[in-house]
Amino acid sequence: MRDLPGPAILLEQLRFRWQRQAPLCLDIPALDIQAGERVFLYGPSGSGKSTLLGLLGAVHQPESGRIEVLGQDLARLSGSGRDRFRVDHIGFIFQQFNLIPYLPVLDNVLLPCRFSARRRARAGQDHGRQEARRLLEALGLEGEQLGRQASQLSVGQQQRVAAARALIGSPELIIADEPTSALDADRQDDFLELLLQECAAQGTTLLFVSHDHRLAPHFTRELSLVQLNGARP
Amino acid sequence: MNALFGLALKSAWNRRLTLGLTLLSIALAVTLLLGVERTRVAARASFSQSVSGADLVLGARTSPVQLMLYSVFRMGGATNNIGWDSYQAVIRHPAVAWSIPIALGDSHRGFPVIGTDAAYFEHFRHGRGRSLSFAQGRPFDGLFEAVLGAEVARRLGYRLDQAITLSHGSGELKQSEHGDKPFTVVGILAPTGTPVDHSVHVSLEAIEAIHLDWQGGAPMPGVQISPEQVRKFDLSPKTITAALIGLKQRTAVFKVQRHINSYPKEPLLAVLPGVALDELWRVVAMVEQALLGISVLVVAVGLAGLVAVILASLNERRRELAVLRSVGAGPRHILALLALEGASITLAGLGLGLLLLNLAAWLAGPTLEARLGLTLALQEVSPAELKLLGAVFLTGVLASLLPAALAYRQALTDGLTPRL
Ligand SMILES: Nc1ncnc2c1ncn2[C@@H]1O[C@H](COP(=O)(O)OP(=O)(O)OP(=O)(O)O)[C@@H](O)[C@H]1O
Ligand SMILES: [Mg+2]
Fold first, then answer.
1. Which of A66, B38, B116, B220 is most buried by a 10 A CB count?
2. Domain ranges, ordered by start, for chain B
């Protein structure tokens, strides 16, 4: 079911609030993103972009409505099923880069391969080591830097490591939450170029979140969360 | 799981200081727990090994525990002696194989003096049935000859041919010296780890001889009998304090006991050493329980430390665990990760504790053995200790599962959107 072209993401009547008494944070009647699309999602700070991504990654559960990712209804997954599904099929680049501080760069990138046989298999020989090096090199990290602990990296470097970790093992869907916020202009271009190139090469669906509307032209579609969202948080 | 092991290791290394301290506190707690347990066992062993050969202990009628205490362990004074004739009469029973008479009451510089006979060196057994052996010299033979226990010789620095004098009673009073009748040391026993080491042995006749010119615990005024003259007197013993009795067959023990206890001419008491010791243990059980209770508390404190450290580090690890879950580590991985850490820390703590204990036993063992007769040898872990260790281990693992459960509940939602 997953390798057939079709909607990569399908939302119906999605409602979400943070607490029972809180006002609705998200209220999205419908959204679908086709496999292979590269979508730019923008909206002001606090508009609920990260929250939506969390819902798509099965980190949060909606109050009502239906979320289908790569043909899988997320509500039908158990807790550990969600963990499995996430690592097997989604590359997440979180807004906070979320590296393991005491692990070297290379090991951080290889984490998904450790826990997912599928990602490991897709990452190629040597348990994905060569692939990890290639990605890191393309992102401007190489040599001695690969052995350094993540805690000793600059913020921009951490962001690039997180990107390599999302890309390794070619997941079908990449969800990136403001991955370029800490990069200088040149790096930002390199980064975007690599990300788009990888996605195009693998036919990966990309959902890219930013409040920087200038990046929009690189993508096949742009979405405004404010327009999508019926709720006004 | 393989992937997890390396991660757990690196993560733990990242927090090595706190984990190291926890490990140390568990180790010390375990050392204490096992130390108390071993001392308890050693104390019991040293008591029962002091009479390993005897089937019955005979004395004047008193409480069995008291008879054991003064006759075998030389603690406290005898209340009554028994007549030599009665003694001779009861040991004539056909089931009796041997018997060792013991006359107490004198001392040498704080060490008790035992009046006895050759049977002592032949039949006394200690430890697992070992007989006495001489480090130097031989058993006493002449009237004023003495054989020293190993500790007496060591502590007072005595050699063979040394002249010593005995004191009446425990020797607090200056005028109660038997100064006119010095003894010559003719033998020094090898160490046994029993009260024998702390005893000075002379013949029953010698005890009789030094008390010839005494009456009621003091020298008779105006009467002085020199060592040369005493030999002219009848020195055969009139009374003894107690006797250790060996039987030809253990099965006869109750018959002989009844025979002795119903001896008509004098109230006598025969006790089975094992039974009397059990009674003694019941008396001291409370103290033992208290000690054990304290060390269990210490272990509990050590484990509480483990839980506290894991819980505290959970806060800083929340992020780490959330990241792991975001890259696909499932609940069972997280659970395994924390449990693995808890289990290895507890296990390492147990190992280190055992190591410390054996180190302590190795360093302090000889001193303890000499001073208290406690044998804390390097030994294998006994089944009882294994139970204690197992309990500590289980508690440790369970203790680390509690934070693991907490961690699992929090991991994703909290970890990926960290609060300020
Ligand atoms: N854990 C939380 N508990 C309660 N409310 C939350 C939580 N996280 C976010 N919110 C609220 O939900 C709303 C949307 O937050 P979200 O993080 O999705 O915004 P965003 O669009 O990603 O903003 P930014 O561009 O700054 O990252 C905000 O009003 C925020 O206060
Ligand atoms: Mg956000």
1. B116
2. 2-47+282-416, 56-271
